[in-house]
Amino acid sequence: MADNGTAFDIVVLGGGSGGYAAALRAAELGKTVALVEADKVGGTCLHRGCIPTKALLHAAELADNAREGAHFGVHTHLERIDMGGVNQYKDNVVGRLYKGLQGLIKSRKIEVVEGYGKLTGPNTVQVGDRTVTGEHIVLGTGSYARSLPGLDIGGRVITSDQALTLDWVPRSAIILGGGVIGSEFASVWRSFGADVTIIEALPHLVPNEDEAVSKAFERAFRKRGIAFNLGVRFSGVTQDDNGVHVSLEDGKTFDADVLLVAVGRGPNTGGLGYEEQGITLDRGFVITDERLHTGVANIYAVGDIVPGLQLAHRGFQQGIFVAEQIAGLNPPLIEESGIPRVTYSDPEVGSVGVTERRAKELYGDDGVEVLEYNLGGNGKSQILATQGFIKLVRKKDGPVVGVHMIGARVGELIGEGQLIVNWEAYPEDVAQLVHAHPTQNEALGEAFLALAGKPLHAHN
Ligand SMILES: Cc1cc2nc3c(=O)[nH]c(=O)nc-3n(C[C@H](O)[C@H](O)[C@H](O)COP(=O)(O)OP(=O)(O)OC[C@H]3O[C@@H](n4cnc5c(N)ncnc54)[C@H](O)[C@@H]3O)c2cc1C
């Protein structure tokens, strides 16, 4: 066993999306790998993030379908939400994927070192009384749900971690933070019948999206009966047997069964020996160069501890990148703005590349062309009874630099969007490619036909 003196080629600290992707790719490239994990391989995304939330969102969609069947001539009604059953379905999905991942790790002969690791030298990670030595080290210790100063998590004040294990549906919920995680829980709980109020300090829900999308998202949430207060800060909360009592800086107060704190995620880097080894931290995040090297010895960092988009697929790509970098393959840099982003609520939001505002900052007000294609003209979207649009942002006479979408299932369309943006396609290139009819995907084709100056089913 490579241990206490015999070095692995790579020691990965943290078995989440970033860490396990680095381990899998490195093993594929013939490296010996130790993967140190304190909890369960798969990390936040598999156990407390992407997968369980999307299972809840799917159950929520079924609840809405049951309520709305009559609209399609299918007379159904929603009897009740059995959270025990919903959680069992969610946990089964997670369990199957977890088993698959463990099998994959084993089959690639990666040694999983169970326990809490600390970086103790340029080549060593200490796990209990075991010193695990590696020629290279990859840090991927991930993130935790942050709170605000003075806002303690406990009882009815919860984060996404507790929200995912609730065995009851709150009758009412206040959600602090209208970003991706807050909006997804708002969507689930509303579909399950709760009264939901979101509080967001910035002027919009999903505030990182193109403003047109954020506004459409707010209209859709309002229509669903989800309340929100924008541009106002939280000031305090108390809780008792009856619920939580939340106050805002503008003097408004709200009561509910629970308060979900969804104000972002902080890096898990404290007390792990990173600074002692000379690694630079900025507000807890690990600073690396563009090749994800920390500047110290052969130590790299991946995933949520590296400043930028905190997304699982970014972690996967960074993990693959670092493994290839270590193996001397000189992989191409990962372009942060080319990473697709999806909010899986009802409606969904999908985007890649830059917003209209950012494009104008980059290329000037006259250097940008924008086109919005309304899903009203798309057959499949009509069949699904969804509303929304696709917004394309193009550098004038140049490539497409942003694709922004809102509507049911648009998250599935972002795959094509990211190919277009990352391959720097011109609208004219995409307009000659054929999209199947009737698909929602076809709406992207139609949008590009319109942007190329030859609209088909568009009133633009
Ligand atoms: C509610 C929610 C929903 C989300 N939905 C999505 C989504 O739909 N799509 C998406 O792309 N992203 C989503 N994310 C974000 C995604 O989960 C993260 O971006 C991703 O998990 C980051 O991967 P990571 O490897 O950096 O860290 P993590 O997944 O956090 O993994 C870090 C791992 O390191 C381990 N660890 C930490 N410290 C130590 C130590 N000292 N010793 C040993 N092990 C240690 C932890 O136990 C953990 O397993 C969601 C997140 C949340 C919270």
UniProtKB/TrEMBL annotation:
Primary location group: cytoplasm
SUPFAM superfamilies the UniProt entry points to: FAD/NAD(P)-binding domain, FAD/NAD-linked reductases, dimerisation (C-terminal) domain
Entry EC number(s): 1.8.1.4
Location(s), subcellular: Cytoplasm
Pfam families: Pyr_redox_2, Pyr_redox_dim
Reaction(s) catalysed by this chain's protein: N(6)-[(R)-dihydrolipoyl]-L-lysyl-[protein] + NAD(+) = N(6)-[(R)-lipoyl]-L-lysyl-[protein] + NADH + H(+)
Family to which the UniProt record says this protein belongs: Belongs to the class-I pyridine nucleotide-disulfide oxidoreductase family.
Protein name as catalogued: Dihydrolipoyl dehydrogenase
Species assigned in the record: Cellulomonas avistercoris
